[in-house]
Amino acid sequence: MRLRSGRPGENTLIFPSGAGTPWTLAAYQSWRRRAFKRAIEAAGLEHGRPYDLRHSFASLLLHEGRSVIYVARQLGHDARLTLSTYGHVMDEFEDMPRLDAQTAIADARAALAAAASSS
């Protein structure tokens, strides 16, 4: 996002409000009700939180075989926090082949479709 935005400064907001300021709590809650909830329903999920997207992003990076340092930087964590939060994910993927995010997502969708059609 920063590259597409012309490399703004480190303290520049990536997703500011329309006025260029941080979102208010009311604006965030409104976005969750209007946009995010509709997206969750359209995906056929019973529930979901924006934070779940962050966890999925980190898990997909680890599944690709990215280093803990790389994932930590992407999340704005230090490596210790990343290890303590996502160590179980690294254990799950230890003996699995590395998959790029697009392949992992496509495989998960195919498995869901197969399960739905056999129900």
Summarize the structure in words.
- With 119 residues, the protein is mainly alpha-helical.
- The protein is built from five helices and no strands.
- Helices cover 61% and strands 0% of the residues.
Number of strands: 0
Number of helices: 5
- What's the order of the H and E elements? HHHHH
Number of domains: 2
Based on Cα principal axes, name the global outline: globular
Q: Estimate what percentage of residues fall within beta strands.
A: under 5%
How confident overall, as mean pLDDT?
A: 88
Through-space gap between termini: 40 Å
Radius of gyration from the CA trace? Answer: 17 Å
- The stretches of 5 or more residues where confidence is low (pLDDT under 50) are none
Q: Helix/strand/pairing class, anyone?
A: mainly alpha
**What percent of the residues sit in helical stretches (DSSP H or I)?**
55-70%
Described by strand count, sense and barrel closure, the largest sheet is:
none
List the helices and strands and how they pair.
Elements: H1 25-42, H2 50-63, H3 68-75, H4 79-93, H5 101-118
Helix pairs in contact: 2-3, 2-4, 3-4
Short description:
It is built from five helices and no strands. By secondary structure, it is mainly α.
